[in-house]
Write a structure and sequence with these properties.
8 helices, 70% helix, 2 domains, Arc Repressor Mutant, subunit A, mainly alpha
Length: 183
């Protein structure tokens, strides 16, 4: 079953072969965990959200189309569900993701090399981005989704996604510079 495409596996799940979900979980749980960790900076919450996403994949398997041959269709569908899980979590908690700025990242530059320090600073700067800019940046740069896939997720044009990514990078540069000046 390892050689099946993601689309083929999800179509098996849709047809009632729930065991195919195990392989999809093995393929994507780390990727979803990384996505949620970047958004929330909370490992336990991220684990819960990954579980909720796979639960929804089972629950809404009947909605999966999977008619195309491209692997992007499954990824887009999965991240669509992941975004909904993320949004529902914060609606339920009645709080906004922007309220959770990561303060736990210790910045002991003297102990780190310059590159490690810059990576730490970059992670910290990402947490200060507006949620919509943070999300588009994480999907494009960290999750490797193509602009076309992100456009499907966000129900907008590919050109609009390019503009959003460009603006997110501009904001990130500005925040990064401000954080550097504080050191």
């Amino acid at each position: 079953m390892d050689s099946y495409s993601d689309n083929a596996l999800m179509l098996k799940v849709k047809a009632g072969q729930r065991d195919a979900m195990g392989l999809l979980f093995e393929r994507y749980h780390r990727r979803l965990f990384g996505y949620y960790c970047q958004l929330s900076q909370e490992a336990e919450l991220s684990e819960d959200l990954v579980q909720n996403t796979f639960y929804r994949m089972l629950k809404y398997a009947h909605t999966y189309q999977g008619e195309g041959e491209g692997e992007g269709e499954f990824i887009t569908w999965m991240f669509h569900l992941a975004r909904n899980v993320w949004a529902d979590h914060y609606k339920k908690q009645q709080r906004l993701p922007t309220e959770e700025i990561n303060q736990a990242v210790p910045l002991s530059i003297a102990e780190e090399t310059e590159t490690e320090g810059q990576l730490t600073q970059l992670r910290r700067a990402i947490q200060y981005l507006k949620p919509e800019r943070k999300e588009v940046l994480l999907l494009s740069r960290y999750q490797g989704l193509r602009y076309q896939e992100i456009a499907q997720l966000l129900n907008c044009s590919e050109a609009n996604v390019k503009v959003r990514v460009f603006r997110a990078i501009q904001d990130l540069r500005q925040i990064f510079r401000q954080l550097e000046q504080q050191l």
